[in-house]
Amino acid sequence: MIEPAFTRLLLASSNSGKLREYTQLAGISGIEIEVLPNFPKLPAFDESAPTFAENAAGKALHYSALAEGVVLADDSGLVVPALNGAPGVRSARYVGPEATDADRIEKLLREMKGKKGDARRARFVCVTAIAARGRALAVVSDFVEGTIAEGPRGSNGFGYDPVFQMLDSNRTYAELQAEEKNCLSHRGRSFIKLVAILQCK
Questions:
Q1: Under a CB-based contact definition with an 8 Å cutoff, are residues 11 and 34 in contact?
Q2: Domain ranges of the chain
Q3: Which has the higher per-residue pLDDT, 1 or 151?
Q4: pLDDT band for position 27 (50/70/90)?
Q5: Which CATH code for domain 4-200?
Q6: Set 75, 101, 142, 168: catalytic member
Q7: pLDDT tens digits, residue range 140-161?
Q8: What are the backbone dihedrals phi and psi of residue 103, each rounded to the nearest 5 degrees, phi first?
């Protein structure tokens, strides 16, 4: 059973896609997730660390020192070995701060042009962290292996979902229904690990 202190988590993100997924994930675990109050007005955290773990933990610590309650933060992204790990921790900033998901996908497919077989292998990584009063409480991670599709497919999800094809399926993340994606995704797997830890606290 999860202690009352952990049944309400404050998400440090303005990403509507992440909020939607976390809200759906939390609904099956007895946890309530909502956006950190006044998030856009709080001093921003500089996500410039070289690893997903440093960015996730740093973000959770930063915002937990500015708010009451337990803060949840994650850093996630697409890692393509054939592109030397890009987009990686810069997945959301792959093209520029004002770029759309379509812009980022277009650049990725342009850089993947001509690559075949194992050169199209990729993984989605997610590191999830929670903190309270400037103290880290848990940091967990998981990933999903896949390949980069030749072109976008599907209308669900967000980010690189339309071009990330799972290894054991011909479908991209964007072709999955929300419930199915949450069970299979890097974010879903990482969150399940977090819930397991909270149940032991």
A1: yes
A2: 4-200
A3: 151
A4: confident
A5: 3.90.950.10
A6: 75
A7: 999 999 999 999 999 999 999 9
A8: -65, -45
